[in-house]
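Human:
If only I could read backbone structure tokens as easily as an amino acid sequence. I am handing you a single protein, as its sequence and its fold in token form. I hope you can help me see how the letters and the tokens relate. Thank you; the sequence and its tokens follow:
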Amino acid sequence: MELLPLSLLAGVLTVLSPCVLPLLPVILAGSAAESGRRSAYLIIASLAVSVMAFTLLIRGASALLGVPTDVWLIVSGSLVLFIGVTLAFPTLWERISTVTGLNRATGELVDSSAQRTGTARSVLLGLSLGPIFTSCSPTYGLILAAVLPTSFAVGFANLLAYTVGLSAVMLLIALGGQSVTRRMKWAVDPNGAFRRGLGGVLIVVGLLIATGVVKDVEAWLVERGILGAVVLEQGILDQVDTGVDAPEPTRLDGSAATEPPAFLAQRFTTIDWQSADPAIFAAISGGPPPDGIPALDDPSFVPLAQVTSGDDVQAIVLQDGTGVRVYPYNILVWHEIVNDTVDGVPVAVTFCPLCGSAIVFERTLPNGTATTFGVSGGLIDSNMIMFDRATEGLWQQSTGRALAGEFVGTELALHPFQLLTLGEVRESHPNARVLSADTGFARDYERNPYGDYDESDQFIFAPSTLDDRYPAKLIMAAFVVGEKRVAVPWLALREAGSLEAEVGGTTVSLEVSDGELDVRDDEGRSVPFYFEMWFSWAVQNATTGIVLDPASR
């Protein structure tokens, strides 16, 4: 039960994360709108019940897994909007309460009509927040992904501890708001301008929730690295022996039973999860919803001479007929996928900042359909899960393998590219065209939202295993020969300049010239490659992969 105190702490720390954004204004406005402390206690108690119930229902009721997230946003937003309208127009609520019997239903709790009105409204307001509650907390994610499936009792206890921590802080906020309100004599008039103004706040917040705008704001905050206490909590969680091992991912067919991650199942409702690759059941949410990190679908380019970014910025470089196209990391880190057409070939230029994987795929599906790809918001061992917009299938970015959907088990074709710095591009390809920072999105492309993540030993989402043969975030050049997956330390290869080795009976030669890599088999055929951090490559290939190290030869 060592996880139990951390679950309580995680609930307390959640108030510092962007994921509680929809809750705070509703709780503050709702509690301030009523004169007595009863309303604050009712709102928070109803919130706690709603969060617990809705979390358990989503985990346990398969009928709810197919309900899109947008539906819950509309339901919750509509309730908040409705309560805002009744505060802004008090006589309307009295009429509704009389017609529906809400006054009679709550009459046993209190005596006065005003108190009956406040009770029903407070309870409804608290209950409305459960369906939209999402948590950035890695502890909350661990409870859902690993603890509940292993032991319902232990999972329930930890979920309860988390909810108590969250509710305690929210209650203090609600009571604090009420305390401030009571000091303002003009604010206590039940039909006054102040309460009507609070109703207006709830109307606005309800609209933002129902239209999904509030989730876009959350995603924007997460993209900018505003994670509140998440990093602190993850650091504590990494040091704790939870005593619970995550269940092995298993299929949904007759041989074993499990559930798809709720955050994916709610959004990708057309997927037949019974045929999904077991790996998808280990997916966790990275925070932003699908398309919360927006892929670029209509990229524009500018001459290299107009680019002011420094020479040390890395970039994916593609040959485009007689020209060259460049996709700098300082833009890719904000969008992760660029859907483009290069030399007549539809391609997806992809980069996952959390695992350093830079890969270019041809975005033609196995059935011949050219599609575009988006960021699902899901991660497997810190690696991005993409989705294709033609079939809404899910694909692991580091392998190009379909994990769920129509094409499970197939892989996207790799497209050749180079990984260079802008300084190297300026020397070798002065006439190159570079992805424009005029993307249509408000992003600070001169700032890395992940800070010094590349150089740090810390993880935002800790991988399931670590192989200590190399530093975790060392960049590897990776490729496949036959059935063998191969990795080579990229900086060591650049320094050595060349390497020749036998892989599964095939002689492979690697040459680096002016920073550009060429990999060929013993028949002189080009072998496509990509780049990835060591920890990410090793967690997928530790037992079967081959590592070639120029320094040891």
User: Anything to note?
Assistant: The two ends are 49 Å apart (CA to CA).
